[in-house]
Amino acid sequence: xxYELLKDKKILIVEDDLSSxxxxxxxxxxxxxxxxxxxxxxxAIDVARSEPGIxxxxxxxxxxxxxxxxxxxxxxxxxxxxxxxxxxxxxxxGDREKIFASGFDDYIVKPILPRQLIDKLINVLIKG
Length: 128
Ligand SMILES: [Mg+2]
Fold this sequence. Notes:
Layout: E1 10-14, H1 18-29, E2 34-38, H2 41-50, E3 56-60, H3 68-78, E4 83-88, H4 96-101, E5 106-109, H5 114-127
Parallel strand pairs: 1-2, 1-3, 3-4, 4-5
Helix pairs in contact: 2-3
Bound molecules: magnesium ion (MG).
Residues 16-17, 60, 62-63 line the site of magnesium ion (MG).
Protein backbone atom coordinates (compact mmCIF):
# COMPACT_ATOMS: atom_id res chain seq x y z
CA UNK A 1 0.00 0.00 0.00
CA UNK A 2 2.85 2.36 0.81
CA TYR A 3 4.22 1.51 -2.62
CA GLU A 4 1.29 3.50 -4.01
CA LEU A 5 3.22 6.66 -3.30
CA LEU A 6 6.05 5.54 -5.57
CA LYS A 7 3.83 4.30 -8.37
CA ASP A 8 4.39 6.30 -11.59
CA LYS A 9 6.98 8.51 -9.88
CA LYS A 10 9.92 9.15 -12.18
CA ILE A 11 13.16 8.10 -10.55
CA LEU A 12 16.59 8.60 -12.09
CA ILE A 13 19.19 6.09 -10.87
CA VAL A 14 22.75 7.36 -11.33
CA GLU A 15 25.27 4.60 -10.69
CA ASP A 16 28.42 3.66 -12.61
CA ASP A 17 28.75 0.18 -11.14
CA LEU A 18 26.68 -2.24 -13.22
CA SER A 19 25.76 -4.72 -10.49
CA SER A 20 24.76 -1.92 -8.11
CA UNK A 21 22.69 -0.34 -10.85
CA UNK A 22 20.88 -3.59 -11.61
CA UNK A 23 20.30 -4.13 -7.89
CA UNK A 24 18.69 -0.69 -7.46
CA UNK A 25 16.52 -1.22 -10.54
CA UNK A 26 15.38 -4.59 -9.23
CA UNK A 27 14.32 -3.10 -5.89
CA UNK A 28 12.49 -0.17 -7.44
CA UNK A 29 10.78 -2.08 -10.27
CA UNK A 30 8.44 -3.60 -7.68
CA UNK A 31 7.14 -0.17 -6.68
CA UNK A 32 5.68 0.74 -10.06
CA UNK A 33 7.97 3.77 -10.33
CA UNK A 34 9.16 4.78 -13.81
CA UNK A 35 12.91 4.25 -13.84
CA UNK A 36 15.60 6.10 -15.75
CA UNK A 37 19.30 5.28 -15.62
CA UNK A 38 22.54 7.19 -16.03
CA UNK A 39 26.06 5.81 -15.66
CA UNK A 40 28.05 9.00 -15.07
CA UNK A 41 27.58 12.57 -13.90
CA UNK A 42 27.29 14.12 -17.33
CA UNK A 43 24.63 11.64 -18.38
CA ALA A 44 22.72 12.39 -15.16
CA ILE A 45 22.73 16.10 -16.01
CA ASP A 46 21.60 15.37 -19.58
CA VAL A 47 18.72 13.11 -18.49
CA ALA A 48 17.61 15.61 -15.82
CA ARG A 49 17.54 18.27 -18.53
CA SER A 50 15.71 16.21 -21.17
CA GLU A 51 13.20 14.64 -18.76
CA PRO A 52 11.63 17.55 -16.85
CA GLY A 53 9.16 15.25 -15.10
CA ILE A 54 11.74 13.43 -12.99
CA UNK A 55 10.72 13.48 -9.32
CA UNK A 56 13.73 11.97 -7.59
CA UNK A 57 17.38 11.40 -8.45
CA UNK A 58 19.28 8.68 -6.62
CA UNK A 59 22.85 9.82 -7.19
CA UNK A 60 26.04 7.92 -6.52
CA UNK A 61 28.84 10.22 -5.28
CA UNK A 62 31.81 8.52 -6.88
CA UNK A 63 31.08 8.76 -10.59
CA UNK A 64 33.16 9.12 -13.74
CA UNK A 65 33.25 12.30 -15.87
CA UNK A 66 31.56 14.52 -13.23
CA UNK A 67 31.18 13.27 -9.64
CA UNK A 68 27.93 13.28 -7.68
CA UNK A 69 28.67 16.59 -5.97
CA UNK A 70 29.31 18.40 -9.25
CA UNK A 71 26.31 16.80 -10.95
CA UNK A 72 23.91 17.64 -8.12
CA UNK A 73 25.19 21.19 -8.08
CA UNK A 74 24.70 21.55 -11.82
CA UNK A 75 21.22 19.95 -11.85
CA UNK A 76 20.16 22.24 -9.01
CA UNK A 77 20.84 25.23 -11.29
CA UNK A 78 18.01 24.29 -13.64
CA UNK A 79 15.81 22.03 -11.44
CA UNK A 80 15.23 23.92 -8.23
CA UNK A 81 12.62 21.53 -6.83
CA UNK A 82 13.81 18.09 -7.89
CA UNK A 83 14.65 15.77 -5.01
CA UNK A 84 18.26 14.56 -5.09
CA UNK A 85 19.43 11.80 -2.76
CA UNK A 86 23.14 10.96 -2.47
CA UNK A 87 24.32 7.37 -2.24
CA UNK A 88 27.43 7.47 -0.12
CA UNK A 89 30.02 4.98 1.06
CA UNK A 90 30.77 4.79 4.77
CA UNK A 91 34.12 6.46 4.14
CA UNK A 92 32.34 9.51 2.82
CA UNK A 93 30.14 10.09 5.84
CA GLY A 94 32.50 12.86 6.93
CA ASP A 95 31.39 14.68 3.83
CA ARG A 96 27.88 15.18 5.14
CA GLU A 97 28.24 18.96 5.01
CA LYS A 98 29.60 18.78 1.50
CA ILE A 99 26.59 16.66 0.50
CA PHE A 100 24.12 19.27 1.69
CA ALA A 101 26.22 22.15 0.36
CA SER A 102 26.14 20.52 -3.08
CA GLY A 103 22.35 20.67 -3.25
CA PHE A 104 21.37 17.18 -2.11
CA ASP A 105 18.17 16.86 -0.07
CA ASP A 106 19.20 13.71 1.74
CA TYR A 107 21.59 10.76 1.58
CA ILE A 108 21.58 7.02 1.98
CA VAL A 109 24.60 4.99 3.07
CA LYS A 110 25.82 2.00 1.04
CA PRO A 111 25.31 -0.92 1.18
CA ILE A 112 21.69 -0.01 0.48
CA LEU A 113 19.01 -2.33 1.84
CA PRO A 114 15.70 -2.57 -0.07
CA ARG A 115 13.54 -1.57 2.91
CA GLN A 116 15.80 1.34 3.74
CA LEU A 117 15.74 2.64 0.17
CA ILE A 118 11.97 2.48 -0.12
CA ASP A 119 11.47 4.13 3.28
CA LYS A 120 13.89 6.90 2.31
CA LEU A 121 12.08 7.55 -0.97
CA ILE A 122 8.66 7.61 0.66
CA ASN A 123 10.03 9.96 3.28
CA VAL A 124 11.45 12.51 0.87
CA LEU A 125 8.34 12.37 -1.31
CA ILE A 126 6.08 13.05 1.67
CA LYS A 127 8.28 15.95 2.71
CA GLY A 128 8.16 17.16 -0.89
MG1 LIG B 1 30.41 4.85 -8.15
